[in-house]
């Protein structure tokens, strides 16, 4: 079942086209990451879904119900935010500083839809939410007594308490340090999976989007330029700009003929779906596709310029020899491997390569 349908939604602020004919669908129980640089329209899209912004055109359906429609012949349909059954987690949590953790979560149960619940039922729901986000026993604490990660867990619990049809997360980890951000996003994903929640997370962090979401929508200048599962997005980006935004990419000119790529590094395998003939193609190679090879297997070679160490892996910067274009490239290797500046490496390229006209 499609939990969310966004149909040709546009929004303009003065001279700025924040959203331009956006179309997206999301199945029940899935997570969508909306990925893009600052100013691309991703937060405006989230706010339009929540009802905080009114689009100029288009339709939005949640759980089969139309919550916004600018195309009706009679009058505009624009359901109020509090009636859309949406859980919203803002960027910085924004807990009420004068309320305890329990009362912050209970605030999410204060809507008209939950007035029929007894005080005991609400208290039990708060306990369930605290357990769900790993905060059992901390209900009497005040927000200032919590760490940043704990505050975000409580903000999530508050959003989930009314059992919303859809959960929206607006860059919820951006204010946290790197280590906590990684741990918390895994916890949040596990929490949402545990209750089969349908969710949308807005982020500018490619790693966050690829690791958390079932589906990733890449936005650029108000347009949704690609919607794919994380593996397809990384391996088969729709254009060079997406390729360079989602991970590291080496971009080179080449010729495509008879279904193969003819490049300065030799003949390469062409990825499926690419144009099979082009005299002025641009190819995209991921750093991990470059592999150190013995002389009898190498396609080309170069000298090490420097190595940037990241712990679990390293990025080796090389410059190929003149006969292969004196091209600077980056090769991703296991972090345990070390190379010295000036060292010569024979290389080959593994896997199919994307080509664009």
Automatic annotation (TrEMBL):
Instruction: Look up the domain of life of the source.
Output: Bacteria
Per UniProt, the keywords (alphabetical) are: ATP-binding, Cell inner membrane, Cell membrane, Ion transport, Iron, Iron transport, Membrane, Nucleotide-binding, Translocase, Transport
Question: What SUPFAM superfamilies does this protein map onto?
Answer: MOP-like, P-loop containing nucleoside triphosphate hydrolases
Its ancestry begins with: Bacteria, Pseudomonadati, Pseudomonadota, Gammaproteobacteria, Aeromonadales
Identify the Pfam families for this entry: ABC_tran, TOBE_2
**InterPro entries in alphabetical order:** AAA+_ATPase, ABC_SmlMolc_Importer, ABC_transporter-like_ATP-bd, ABC_transporter-like_CS, ABC_transpr_FbpC, Mo/tungstate-bd_C_term_dom, P-loop_NTPase, Transp-assoc_OB_typ2
| BP GO annotations | quaternary ammonium group transport
Gene Ontology cellular component?
Answer: ATP-binding cassette (ABC) transporter complex
What name does the UniProt record give this protein? ABC transporter domain-containing protein
This entry's Gene Ontology molecular function terms read: ABC-type ferric iron transporter activity; ATP binding; ATP hydrolysis activity
Segments passing through the bilayer: none
**Species of origin:** Oceanisphaera profunda
Task: Tell whether ATP-binding is among the UniProt keywords.
Answer: yes
Residue ranges annotated for the ABC transporter domain, each copy included: 4-246
